[in-house]
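Morning F.,

Quick status update on the modeling queue. The single chain you submitted on Monday has been processed. Sequence for confirmation:
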Amino acid sequence: MSQKPENFEAALKQLETLVNQLEKGDLPLEEALTAFKQGVELTQYCQKTLQEAEETVTQMMTQEGEVPLDGDPA
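Structure tokens below.
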């Protein structure tokens, strides 16, 4: 990724823009490959961010005596 996204929402918006560009099919091959690579990197960033958020929520719920999100007791 050329630069780290500002936040999850910005990454998701950028990813949506890239997907729309790729779906149109108007990009030259080199630009399409670059856009695809950026899309993969943004997807990984979003997945990591969501995983970290889920872990934080699970930890908070466990500390409060609630059942973790996966349904298994901690």
